[in-house]
Amino acid sequence: MGLSSDQLAFYADNGYVVVPDIVPPDVLTRIRDAITDITNEAQAGRSARLSDVLVEPDAVGAGAGAATATARPPLRKLNALVPHDPFFRSVAASPAILDVVAQLTDNATRIMLYSDQVFLKPAHCGSAKPLHQDNSYFRVMPHSHGVTCWMAVDDATEENGCMRYIPGSHNLGLLPHKQISAAHLTPEASDLGREIPVPVPAGAAIFHHLLTLHSSEANTSDKPRRAWALHYANRDAESSVRPWDEMVQMR
Question: Is the pTM of this model over 0.85?
């Protein structure tokens, strides 16, 4: 079905748009259950459904919840569910998502999944993600040929670290970024605009442009903030970072 004219206009102005109820409630339940199973498997060191996982960098002593956590450090991120799990691939290829992706990637007729990640942001110790543009990592060209679908698996609130955007920042072009940790880039410049928190309920998705500046704060609440980020590209695009034969064809 895709986006309405008002939603497309909002995206053009702001560089992101919220789409409520992108997955049906029964599918959302299956997503939650599957992520819980995969997280438990990964914690136990026996998951065959992932290419790699990342742990929270400073889990010990990070909050009240960390003190009672398992001896293994809490997980921060699960990478590449779609290539290894038929259920997640079926959700990523759903028409409800791909119709929006096609609209936001210059009316793509061939759509690839560049990558996908689950951000777990566990209660009390889920770390912040610094301000950045996705295309500082992905290098999809032209920039308008890619889009991120950020799907809320749990309710995303200001307390547990919802997404934050600088509206209109996709018009700034690709900014020079600096490396601030092994996994994180952030713009060299400061004062790029005011970040707006965008809380969304579970089951909603935020689609954002690859140049839209965004971040999320640490989770200091007692509730997790799991989200599944799906990064799509028009097959007519080019990427200097990842060859097309490493991506998954969606349409």
Answer: yes
Using alpha carbons, select from 163, 168, 164, 170 the residue that is nearest to residue 143: 170
Kindly report which listed range (80-84, 155-159, 164-168) carries the lowest average pLDDT score: 80-84
Residue 152: strand pairing partners: 227
Question: Using CA atoms, how far apart are residues 218 and 170, in angstroms rounded to an integer?
Answer: 24
What is the rounded CA–CA span in Å between residue 24 and residue 151?
Answer: 12
**Tell me: the pLDDT tens digits for 176-195?**
999 998 888 999 998 999 99
The domain that holds 244 is classified in CATH as: 2.60.120.620
Compute the distance between CA of residue 170 and CA of residue 11 in angstroms, rounded to an integer: 10
Q: 38 with 87: CB under 8 angstroms?
A: no
Per-residue three-class SS string for 190-235: CCCCCCEEECECCCCEEEEECCCCEEECCECCCCCCCEEEEEEEEC
Q: What pairs with residue 78 in β-bridges?
A: 53, 118
In a domain? residue 61: yes
Instruction: Output the pLDDT for position 150.
Output: 98
Angle at 209 between CA 204 and CA 212, to 5 degrees: 105
The domain in which residue 108 lies consists of 5-128+138-249
Give CA separation, 228 vs 65, 164, 181, 211, 237, in Å. 23, 16, 22, 19, 23
Residue 133 included in any domain? no
60-109, pLDDT tens digit by residue? 444 434 334 445 778 989 999 999 999 999 999 999 999 999 999 999 99
